[in-house]
Write a structure and sequence with these properties.
By secondary structure, this protein is mainly α. It contains eleven helices and no strands.
Length: about 270
């Protein structure tokens, strides 16, 4: 994700500010003055918030990102060597950005995504934003890929992975619902599977089915599992089609009677 630089200061104001930063850093590192450390944190909080806002996306709370960037600032203060000639801000900014990137990589994705794919997805999203401003339209996957040395398929894969960043609770109201007490999103998807009843029925009739003569079981299997016609079954078994029809009716009647008896038995057990 692209990061805009912190708001520039005038050169006249920047020198005294950098001098004061270094003075506080020396106090903290050489004199163990915790008040100097706290003052440094307070001085850099506007920069912390600026960076956190640049990394905010989706429903990510800004205050959470501010806390993560603040942790990076504290780490930068503790690790910075006041003897260095570079400005402290040039060391602190990459440290805060790195802390934010680790946060997004390790904690903010709804599902686990490999680190390399996460970084590719962030690069693609950043490039799409930049090219949209430059071109005045949404760039094609090929244009995005050419800008960051990826092929179109890799760009499309990154678009799909980006969907894994956020998740939606099945208890949340469906998109566009104005009533906060409306039925959850889960109530709008899926349907009742009527085949569950067939599973229960199969268990109920299993004993009766095993009691049928082997030929009748085979006829039922050919009729209802292999979906063969009565004529085809008759030709295979070596009897007339009318006889096959009678055997099927008789077998089904026995199974139906067994199933009804099982249901009555369950009801009686529930009442006792």
């Amino acid at each position: 994700m692209a990061l805009d630089a912190a708001p520039p200061e005038t050169s006249a104001a920047a020198k005294p500010a950098a001098h004061e930063d270094r003075r506080l850093l020396v106090r903290y590192h050489e004199e163990n003055d915790d008040r100097a450390r706290a003052e440094l944190v307070e001085r850099f909080m506007p920069l912390v918030r600026h960076i956190a806002r640049r990394y905010q996306r989706g429903n990510e709370p800004l205050e959470d990102l501010v806390q993560v960037a603040s942790l990076g600032l504290v780490k930068a203060i503790d690790r910075f060597d006041p003897a260095r000639t570079t400005a402290f801000s040039s060391y602190a900014v990459p440290t805060m950005v790195g802390e934010l990137k680790r946060y997004f990589r390790d904690f903010s994705w709804a599902v686990h995504v490999p680190r390399g794919m996460q970084e590719r997805t962030v690069a693609v999203q950043s490039t799409v934003s930049r090219l949209s401003e430059e071109l005045g339209r949404s760039p094609s996957p090929t244009e995005v890929g050419e800008a960051i040395d990826l092929n179109a398929e890799q760009v499309l894969e990154a678009f799909e992975v980006a969907l894994a960043y956020d998740s939606l609770s099945l208890d949340a109201p469906p998109p566009g619902a104005e009533d906060p007490d409306a039925s959850g999103y889960g109530d709008t998807i899926g349907e009742e599977d009527e085949r569950f009843e067939l599973v229960e029925l199969g268990v109920s009739i299993a004993p009766a089915l095993s009691d049928l003569p082997e030929r009748e079981r085979e006829i039922l299997r050919m009729r209802f599992k292999e979906d063969m016609t009565q004529s085809e079954i008759a030709a295979r078994v070596g009897v007339s089609q009318m006889h096959v029809s009678r055997l099927i009716r008789r077998s089904l009647a026995r199974l139906e009677e067994a199933a009804e008896g099982e249901v009555r038995c369950h009801r009686e057990e529930a009442l006792t």
